[in-house]
Amino acid sequence: MKTKTTLTAAVLTALWISGCAGKKEQTTGPDTLAVNVFNLSTKSISAGDNTVYDGTLEADKTIDLSFQVSGTILSFPVHTGDFVNKGQLVGAVDETTYRNQYNAQLAQVKLAQENYTRINEVFKKGSVAEIKMLEAKSNFDQATSAAQATYQNIAHTHLYAPVSGYVGEKKAEAGAVASPGQPVLQLLDTRAVKVLVAVPESEVNRYKAGTPATVKIDALGDTPLQGKVAEVGVLALSGSANYNVKITLANNDMKLKPGMLCKVVFDKAARVADTTSAKEVIVPVQAIQVDEKGNNFLYIVTADHKAARKEVTTGQLYSKGITIKTGLNGNEEVITSGYQKLADKTPVIVNN
Asked: Which of 105, 110, 169, 317 could hold 186 in an S-S bridge, CB 3.0 to 4.6 Å?
């Protein structure tokens, strides 16, 4: 009896060990790799979803100021970064030459006026021909016009701000010689500001003038500001496939300054439908590999738990991943770890 019991126990023990060994081999196998995956059907974000863009503030208007007359700059009482009010004096050139010319012409005006007055009196008495009186009047009018023109030169020796704003750049200093039309100061009109956003060519057609946008200025904390698209660029930026989109923001408290960095999100509901990117999906960047021919590819998990290589066409790079234009249907499990050891049809097991 004791012998039979011992034999039964031994058989049960052998079956248990055999069962455990068989279960282990069925689960992993000697060539099976454990991998992490990114499930597109549950985690992928379409490229058409809200995308956060980087933006930079710029002045609503940039005005280059210049003198209309030449001369030595005597005063330039503003500095870069100063706020100036409309009508404020920002520079002056030496008016001595123009003042002397004006004084000389005033003397000519006085002489011509006296001559005209005298001849006109004689003409009224009939002692002189009418032509003489008309010549005297013409000389008086010409002298007056010349004096007025010279006086405008005196007025133009002073430069005033045409609008309120910040001094963006001084291009000359006191002591320099100014020339007519040569910019000496850059004035930034910041009563409103524009956000400059570089948008990829694949997305620029989604936006139009009037599209609402939410802007967060890094320097002002997390308080969002609401603006609208004012312009959509039609020329690509030099050396890139991006286009400028400009958003207008009110700047009533003048806290927004050109050069500030910000984040921009466009209102999804107000965007123009874009069917060209409807099939684009986003996957983690680390899943993409490049072969010796320069082709992009990645691995997915098949229904029979094997790795399958898929050649793909990539698109725009985002902070959350990279878009896949072609090669995926959008319901695959993309392998994101262990892919360095994979080959096509390698058995895999997905980590929980």
From this structure: 169
